[in-house]
Amino acid sequence: MCAISETHVTETTSPKSPTISISDEMRKSYLDYAMSVIVSRALPDVRDGLKPVHRRILYAMMEGNYDWTKPPRKSARIVGDVMGNYHPHGDSSIYEAMVRMAQDFSMRLPLVDGQGNFGSVDGDPAAAMRYTESRLARAAESLLRDIDKNTVEFAQNYDETQLEPTVLPAEYPNLLVNGANGIAVGMATNIPPHNPGEVIAACEAYVNNPEITTEELTEIVPGPDFPTGALIMGRHGIREAYRTGRGSIIMRARAEVQTNAKDRESIIVHEIPYQVNKAQLLERIGEMVRDKVLEGISDIRDESDRTGMRIVIEVKRDAAGDVVLNKLYRHTRLQTSFPVNMLAMNAGRPIQMGLKDVIEAFCEFRKDVVIKRTTFLLNKSRDRAHILAGLMVALASIDEIIELIKKAPDTETARNELCATAWPAHEVGAFIALIDDPGHAVVDDHYTLSEVQARAILELRLQRLTGMERDKLAAETQELADKIADYLDILGSDTRVSQVILDELAATRERLSDDRRTEITDQLADQDDEDLIQQEDMVVTVSHRGYIKRVPLSIYRAQRRGGKGRAGMKTRDEDFVTRLFVTNTHTPILFFTSKGMVYQLKCYKLPESAPQSLGKAMVNLLPIEPEETINTVMPMPDDESSWGDLNVMFATASGNVRRNNLSDFTNIKRNGKIAMKMQDGDELVGVIPCNDDDDVLMATRNGKAIRFAANAVRVFRGRDSTGVRGIKLLGKDRVVSMSIIADPENEYILSVTENGYGKRTPIKDYRQSGRGGQGVANIEISPRNGQVMASFTVVEEDQLMLVTNQGQIIRIRVHGGEGDSIRIASRKTLGVRLFDVADDNDEKVVSAGLIHESDDDDDDHDVVADGEGRDDALTSPNSETQTETEAVKPDNSDAPDEEA
After folding, report:
1. pTM, two decimal places
2. Where in the sequence does UniProt note compositional bias of the Low complexity kind (predicted)?
3. Cα radius of gyration (the chain)
4. Hey, what CATH topology would domain 533-888 get?
5. Which residues pair with 658 in a beta bridge?
6. Tell me: the pLDDT tens digits for 566-613?
7. 537, 853 in Cβ contact below 8 A?
8. The domain 366-509 is classified under which CATH number: 2.40.128.20, 1.20.1300.10, 1.10.268.10, 1.10.10.60?
9. For the domain bounded by 254-333, which CATH number is listed?
10. What contacts 767, CB < 8 A, 6 or more positions away?
């Protein structure tokens, strides 16, 4: 509270007026206002779970006989009764409170049965109260039952003309069943609704064992049960809320991904979190799709009707439904939290309460209600029994009493004489003793009537003198005697009180319980997209103009060498495929740019497309500058445990190399980081993981290659250097590829030329030298072969994929059956034909990739890709082309090594 100067105001109307401190007066007035809001408006009572306005509405409806068994009445009439008798506030606040009690999507057990428009989960307001009708719901009967039996205290209403209850004698803990929310002064409450059957069962468990722990109660009440259903993610927030009264519960919509007949995925939402406005939710999703915050969504429809909720979110063909749904959970209110703050009024004070505290307070209240009700019924039975005792005495001496009445001059005299006479009670003494009438016992076989009994005798009708009526009086006396004995036994035994509470709780549970609507799952709420993606090998294709896509490896089938291949990627004019590799959907992929920056994306975040599709521009996936291009795309090793022991070797087109720790590139944020400082006119040609025991092989466009130890290049600590020289280039020669030699005994150097020729050469043919030399001959450069396109290490189990600038792709085995292997030859040879490129349109091989796992399909015949027609059939080997290749250069040719 802000400081207020001690300013004093003196009344001038009278010299004796007191001096008032403004700060004291404001402090007192503010505290009075705050307590009024806390006690009388904002916080519910722990006993019946109601705020004053709700309690007054229910009591006024009971007084007006708007019972659930009667026809409903105009809501305006009910609001008028409440406002006129009990609640001195505006009619709109009363009606809004009554509307909420009638909404089945707001209350777990609606307390008002409304007819007409009472709002919707879309946030539509209720119709005006002159158009709707209401009555008490059946669940409200259990809150009001026995209110006329002196079970609760009453207080004066606002104008002191009537009495109103300070609490309702609730038969179930409504605070937990329907929850509550409110904002007071300096405090607030937010209690979630629960399943009625579970909460009442927990109360029964507490009555049977008051020492029960919160953990044991949690086994009975596993968590909130929201009227809108949906899911609760995890149990930690629930345990904290039940233990301390505070916690955060993660709610998630119930949704599923369905695939239609056209293989298009749709997300179907059946239930949304509690208190989420459906219309605003859909509007927000639409805005985020329009702003490209959410991608992969093509259409949104609300197909909800009277049978239930149904929101349809259409997913684009190249998007994964599970991933889109996970993003919806992350960015929209399809997943939200419920901040639990279990603050309620207990004994006139606002108290933070846990689950056991609420149940304990309610059970103590029920005990008080049962005792007060039993005391009320005992007194009422005794009053009736007292009258019956007088009637029994009168019937035993009916002739004398009639004679006395006949002689009396008036009623008062007759009543006084009846009270003054001691009447014989030897015939009815047993009954009088049976009903235990204190203060009016039989003395010396005589009984003295009280004024009440005398008045009852004077009002006795003659028909009660018949034998049948006398038998009825005797039976009623016996029944009252049994009731009085039972009431006394209840009041004298805590065990009996507990048993009465248990019986009533069981009856209430049987009447109100229903199935749980909200499912509690142990699944983590912050599940990453990667957890939803199935691990699968993908062929990643990159085009010259910067388009990228991924295609499942299973789409392709192995062919023999020399085939025509199949369409691998649709390209635009002047575009062609430049990079291809096979990796897993969960593998991080590093993107190195022409300016030496590096970015990272998981493979599953790349657009999945058909083999003939164009893909998506990388500039739309990465935040690169307009003049920047992606020069190198490198998948990280599949084995994450090896990342800490590996280095990364960089090679540039100008022949420079640099070695860094792989850990320098494992934590790259969306805006990327500097990877290597580049000189003008230079660019990256390769970035490959390696270790100290590996060798590096660099191959040039003009058929040179150099092999040197990886540890000949020191590990650079920074990422902004240009590195050191790896190979000395002559003329306009450029480095085209870099490979790492890890297993010289089993690996070969596979070289591929741009005209589709290639060969394998044993590693031993490439002697190790120091870095910085000119290298040795790698493959013969001729008009037939063209320049070298790539050279890298392979093993016999590998498969090779080649792509041309016309978008054709082929997959062949490095070592296949007879006549189907890539020939092993010495370094300076022409090689054999691997890809039958077309000469008439200047087709060239522009990219090559390795598959490090053998294909399960070993069929040597033409194979049609899954779901494809014969136009995309993989062709059989061309024997004529193979013969021509062998005639140009025999397999055993042995040209001398040429060192520069």
Report:
1. 0.68
2. 10-21
3. 45
4. Neuraminidase (2.120.10)
5. 650
6. 555 555 554 556 677 888 888 888 888 877 788 998 888 888 877 777
7. yes
8. 1.10.268.10
9. 3.30.1360.40
10. 707, 776
CA nearest neighbour of 687 among 777, 597, 763, 773:
597
763, 664, 756, 648: which is closest to 705 by C-alpha? 763
What values do phi and psi take at 76, rounded to 5? Answer: -60, -35
DSSP-assigned beta bridge partners for residue 251: 232, 336
Least confident of 408-422, 425-439, 686-700: 425-439
Residue range 22-54, pLDDT digits in tens: 887 787 777 777 777 777 677 899 999 999 999
Indicate the pLDDT class of residue 871, thresholds 50, 70 and 90: very low
Nearest-angstrom CA–CA distance, 752 and 736? 11
Tell me, letter by letter, the H, E, C secondary structure of 586-631: CCEEEEEECCCEEEEEEHHHCCECCCCCCCEEHHHCCCCCCCCCEE
Domain locations in the chain? 23-191, 254-333, 366-509, 533-888
On whether the CB atoms of residues 748 and 826 are closer than 8 A, the answer is: no
- Interval 756-808: pLDDT, tens: 899 899 988 898 899 999 899 888 888 888 899 888 888 888 888 888 888 78
pLDDT score recorded for residue 440: 65
pLDDT in tens, 146-170: 999 999 999 999 899 999 999 999 9
Q: Locate 892 and state its tokens.
A: 């055993």
**Residues 127, 128, 132: CA angle, nearest 5 degrees:** 70
Question: How far apart are the C-alpha atoms of 606 and 239, rounded to whole Å?
Answer: 40
Mode of pairing for the β-strands spanning 519-521 and 231-233: parallel
Distance CA(363)–CA(343), nearest Å, equals 18
Question: How far from chain centre, in Å, is Cα 27?
Answer: 45
| Cα–Cα distance measured from residue 500 to residue 514, given in angstroms and rounded to the nearest whole number | 23
Q: Which residue has the tokens 């089993």?
A: 746
Active site residues: 131
CA 608 to chain CA centroid, Å, is: 27
Q: Which residue carries 């190195």 as its tokens? A: 592
* Cβ–Cβ < 8 Å for 837, 756: yes
- By residue count, the chain amounts to 900
Q: What percent of the chain has pLDDT over 90?
A: 39
CA-to-CA dists, residue 412 to 274, 394, 418, 448, 740, angstroms? 69, 17, 10, 17, 124
Q: How far is CA 229 from the centre of its chain?
A: 12
C-alpha separations of 463 from 385, 459, 467, 566 in Å: 20, 12, 9, 112
Beta carbons of 847 and 580 less than 8 angstroms apart: yes
- Would you state the structure tokens that stand for residue 608, as one six-digit string? 């999945």
Q: Is 443 helix (H, G, I), strand (E, B) or coil?
A: strand
Contact call for residues 630 and 622 (beta carbons, < 8 A): yes
What tokens appear for 795 in the block? 């093993």
Q: Which CATH fold would you assign to the domain 23-191?
A: Topoisomerase II; domain 5 (3.90.199)
Longest Cα–Cα distance of the chain, Å, equals 157
Q: What is the DSSP letter of 41?
A: I
Distance between CA atoms of residues 499 and 366, nearest Å: 12
Specify the DSSP class assigned to residue 39.
I
Look up tokens 């248990």; give the residue. 502
pLDDT at residue 12 greater than cutoff 60: no
Residue 652's alpha-carbon distances to 314, 592, 593, 687, 689, in angstroms, are 45, 12, 12, 9, 15
- Provide the β-strand partners of residue 20: 9
DSSP, residue by residue, 59-121 = HHHHHTT--TTS--EEHHHHHHHHHHHT--S-HHHHHHHHHHHH-TTT-SS-SEEEES----T
Residues in CB range of 727: below 8 A, 6 or more apart: 655, 698, 700, 704, 706, 735, 771, 772, 773, 774, 775
Burial class of residue 216 in the structure, from the number of CB atoms within 10 Å of its CB (0-12 exposed, 13-18 middle, 19+ buried): middle
